[in-house]
Amino acid sequence: MANNPLIITCPIVGAELTKEHYPYLPTTPEEVAEAARGAVEAGASIIHLHVRDEEGKPSQRVDIFQDITKKIRERCECIIEYSSGGAVGTPLEERCAPLKLKPEMATLDMGTMNFGPDIFENSEHTIRTISRAIQENHIMPTLGVLDYGMMDTIDRYLEKGYIPEKIHICFVLGVPGGMSGGIKNLVLMVDRLRPGQVWTIGGVGRFQLLLAVHAIAMGGHVRVGIEDNIYYRKGELAKSNAQLIERIVRISKEMDRPIATVDETREILEI
Asked: What is the set of domains in the chain, with CATH numbers?
C-alpha cells in the first residue's frame, strides 16, 4: 500500500463526552477551533464537527456551526464534515439544520441501534430526509456504519435511489450496542464493500489504535480523535486530539503510507 496517501479524519469533540469524563474537552467555539487547528497541524485533513452551546451541551444550532466553521477556516485549511447525528434524541429537523451551510462533507448514519443505555434512532424516514438535505446542498455524504446489517441497508438504499451513488463509508466499531471492534469484524466489513469504494475506520475506546493500524495495512483510511477514545494508552488520558494523530502519523510513515494533504483527500474522495 506504499504511496497510497492516508486520510486522517479527526472527531474533535463529539456529543457524549463531558469535562467530567475528560477535562481537556474543547467546548467553546475558540477551544473547538483551536482543537481543529492542532489536529490539522498533526496530520488530519478532515475535521468531523460536533458543536456545543454556551453551557457546553451538544447542539445542532446553525449559528454555532457557522461561527466555529469560520473560526476553523481562519486557523487552518481542512475539509469540514458536519455531524447530522447530533446527540441521542436530537429531533430530525435540528439534525438537518446545519446542512444549509453547505459543508464539503456530512455524516449519514445508516440505521437505528442501541447506543450504550440509549437508542440512536435512524429510521428509513430519518435517513431519507437527511440524505435529501445532503444532496440538495451538494454535500459529500459519509455513511456511518456501526453494525453489519447497515451494509445491507446501503445496498438496498442505493438500488432504490435513497442515497447518492458517490459516497464515503466510515465504519465505527466498538460502540456498546453495535458491532465490536475486533479485526475479523473489520475484515468482514471491508470484504462487503463495492470494488473501489473508499473507506475509513473509527475504533471506539481500546479499539482505536488496533483498527487504525490494520486499516493502514489494508489500504483504508482512519478516524482518530477524542470523540471515539480519550486514552493514549490504558489508564493514561490523551492530552489532545493532536497527540493521538501524531502517533498514527508515525506508524503510517513507517509503513510507507504518506499522510494525505487536503488536496489529495479531495482527489481521493472526488469532492
From this structure: 8-269 (3.20.20.70)
